[in-house]
Amino acid sequence: MRNVYIYILVMALVTYAIRVLPLTLIRKEIKSRTIKSFLYYVPYATLSAMTFPAILTATENIYSAAAGFVTALILAFCRRGLLTVAIGACAAVYIVELIL
Amino acid sequence: MGSSRSSFMRGMKDGIPICLGYFAVSFAFGIQAVQSGLSVFQATLLSLTNVTSAGQFAGIGIISASGSLMEMAGAQFVINLRYMLMSTAISQKIRPNEKILHRMGIAYGMTDEIFAISASHPGILSPFYSYGAILVSVFGWTFGTFIGAYSGEILPQRLISALGVALYGMFIAIVIPPARDNVKVRITVIAAMLMSMIFTYAPLLKNISSGFRIIIVTVVIAGAAAVLFPRDEEAIA
User: Fold this and answer.
1) Among the partner residues B86, B104, B175, nearest to A48 by beta-carbon distance
2) ipTM metric
3) In a domain, B141, yes or no
4) What are the distances in angstroms from CA B91 to CA A24, A54, B118?
5) Which residues span the domain enclosing A9?
6) Greater confidence, B173 or B194?
7) Same domain, B211 and B115
8) How far is B212 from chain A (nearest CA, A)?
9) What is the predicted pLDDT for the residue at B235?
């Protein structure tokens, strides 16, 4: 195995460069309506794509994962806070895995 | 000065659920990192310097397989490229004349979750809000890694399995309320999930790595939404 610290350094440098370049180089307000609209929709598209279908394989089996997913959807639909939704989803997974 | 302080406190408060979600995920990361051959110190240092879940999980896989540094750089670039979109979006939320040191400080903590709370924060984003959220969140991320790496499998498998959905639950909590209120956001969310599912299971498409898949889905769906449903308001809410 190569020196682990070199790997960690490469990882940190690449990741930080990705994060810091737009924030330091884009100093003006973007005027384009299309780009502004695009940036508005980015978090919804990204978070949705990261959540589904990955959540279905995040637990021991697909039944408990589906229970967690549906529980989170319902709690979020009822406008519960981040923590409530997250804990509710975990609890649903735990209970279903106890039963199955 | 007073407003910096209140922004910082507000950021810390909003960072608490992120901290808890991170603790769960990074705990699992710590266990896996030690199994991949990293020391407890190395695993903790990795979390403190990278603060990225998917990138770190991929990274310890490459380390344990003795992959090349180019492969490591390439994988991190693709998996984490979405942060570039997020940083671009946040560059429009901060004051145009914000100091470069503050810009560099915010960049360190540009994760999916901190981005999410920053993007939904009303009005101009104060760097001190970000610092408060980063301090609490990165503490959870790093401390969780340390505990996971150090204490290994003291938690029953069933509990670790349940904790696996914590972060997804948080994402859902961020996405669903606006989707409920706004039909354009709702279409965007459903379309992104459908496309992500197709890319996960369809032949050939499923060979695309998860980091790249997220980028493709984001660019295509957010791009289509921007063309089909351009926004009139000048503020990025």
Assistant:
1) B175
2) 0.85
3) yes
4) 8, 29, 11
5) 2-99
6) B194
7) no
8) 11
9) 46
Map tokens 């307000």 to a residue: A29
Chain segment B125-162, per-residue pLDDT in tens: 999 999 999 999 999 999 999 998 988 767 777 877 78
- Rounded to whole angstroms, the Cα distance separating B35 from B195 reads 34
Q: Residue B194: inside a domain, yes or no?
A: yes
Quote the minimal CA–CA distance from A100 to chain B in Å: 12
More confident site: B113 or B225: B225
Q: Is residue B177 part of a domain?
A: no
- Over range B201-213, report the average pLDDT: 82
Top residue of A2, A10, A19, A94 to mutate, by most chain B CBs within 10 Å, is: A19
Write out the residue range of the structural domain in which residue B9 sits. Answer: 2-170
Task: Give the domain-ending residue among B170, B195, B215.
Answer: B170
User: pLDDT exceeding 70 applies to what percent of chain B?
Assistant: 95
How many CA atoms, within 13 angstroms, populate the side-chain half-sphere of residue B98? Answer: 26
DSSP calls for B107-176? HHT--HHHHHHHHTS-SSPPHHHHHHHHHHHHHHHHHHHHHHHHHTT-S-HHHHHHHTTHHHHHHHHHHH
Same-domain check for residues B82 and B192: no
What value does the mean pLDDT take over residues B158-181? 86
- Contact list in B for residue A43 (CB cut-off 8 A) is 86, 89, 115-116, 119-120, 174-175
What pLDDT shows up at residue B107? 96
- Closest Cα in chain A, distance from residue B154 (Å): 17
Instruction: Please give the model's pTM, rounded to 2 decimal places.
Output: 0.74
Mutation site for A-interface testing, chosen from B44, B76, B83, B171 by largest number of A Cβ within 10 Å: B171
> What is the number of structural domains in chain B?
2
Which amino acid, A33? R
- Kindly list the residues from chain A whose CB atom is less than 8 angstroms away from the CB atom of residue B64: 1
Contact A39 B179 (CB under 8 A): no
Closest chain A residue by Cα to residue B58: A11
The domain total for chain A is 1
